[in-house]
């Protein structure tokens, strides 16, 4: 979409990355087709957002539109666009019911506010760092990094939460990590 063309070898290295992530996720106990399609739409949207953002970075979209400022503007626009959709899907009564259930479980209002603000701040910072990285690499490299992040999350949950992992999960994670290495090597050598 941006007119950048890479060598066929570089494109072939994307196969083990995608295949490895698919294998690592295959034995997920909470798999549903709705979740699968939601994840695919999310991945496609993220890739398209990265491409659109990359085309907007550094030229002609406004004054002082650095990567961080561009992400800030996109976040504000997304909030304004999705607020009515969110309220239609989950009206305030449902939100108040969830807050009531959390309070009944022993959580205080202060705790809920603090956790909500921290979650929002960390999510914003995570995405701002992703935009800063996108400003320095091409969208395909950024997408590969985003894909391998899923494997890192699986491995981190195995270590941090002592989550059992299947042999297929280990094999898939290893293939995805190896594919990422091959992608980096191919991109440096062949372009």
The structure class reads mainly alpha
Average pLDDT, rounded to a whole number, is 82
Number of helices, where a helix is a run of at least 4 consecutive DSSP H or I residues: 8
Largest sheet: none
Q: Tell me the distance between the termini.
A: 17 Å
Shape estimate: globular
Order of helices and strands: HHHHHHHH
- Helical proportion? over 70%
Radius of gyration: 20 Å
What fraction of residues sit in β-strands? under 5%
Q: Number of DSSP strands?
A: 0
Give unreliable regions as ranges.
none
Quick summary of this structure?
By secondary structure, this protein is mainly alpha-helical. It has helices at 8-12, 14-26, 33-56, 67-89, 92-104, 109-134, 139-161, 167-190. It has eight helices and no strands.
Key features of this structure:
single chain, 191 residues, mainly alpha
Describe this structure in words.
With 191 residues, the protein is mainly alpha-helical. Among the domains are: 65-136, no CATH class; 138-191. The protein contains 8 helices and no strands. It has helices spanning 8-12, 14-26, 33-56, 67-89, 92-104, 109-134, 139-161, 167-190. The radius of gyration is 20 Å and the shape is globular.
Helix and strand topology:
Layout: H1 8-12, H2 14-26, H3 33-56, H4 67-89, H5 92-104, H6 109-134, H7 139-161, H8 167-190
Helix pairs in contact: 2-7, 2-8, 3-7, 4-6, 7-8
């Amino acid at each position: 979409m941006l007119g950048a063309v890479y060598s066929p070898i570089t494109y072939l290295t994307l196969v083990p990355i995608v295949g490895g992530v698919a294998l690592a996720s295959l034995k997920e106990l909470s798999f549903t087709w709705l979740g699968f399609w939601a994840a695919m739409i999310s991945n496609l949207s993220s890739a398209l957002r990265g491409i659109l953002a990359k085309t907007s970075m550094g030229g002609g979209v406004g004054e002082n539109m650095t990567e961080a400022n561009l992400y800030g503007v996109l976040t504000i626009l997304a909030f304004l666009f999705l607020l009515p959709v969110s309220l239609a899907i989950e009206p305030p009564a449902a939100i108040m019911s969830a807050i009531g259930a959390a309070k009944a479980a022993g959580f205080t209002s202060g705790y809920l506010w603090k956790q909500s603000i921290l979650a929002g701040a960390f999510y914003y910072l995570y995405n701002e760092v992703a935009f800063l990285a996108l400003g320095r690499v091409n969208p395909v490299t950024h997408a590969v990094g985003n894909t391998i992040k899923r494997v890192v999350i699986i491995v981190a949950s195995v270590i941090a939460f002592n989550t059992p992992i299947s042999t297929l999960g280990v094999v898939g994670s290893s293939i995805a990590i190896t594919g990422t290495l091959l992608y980096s090597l191919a991109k440096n050598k062949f372009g």
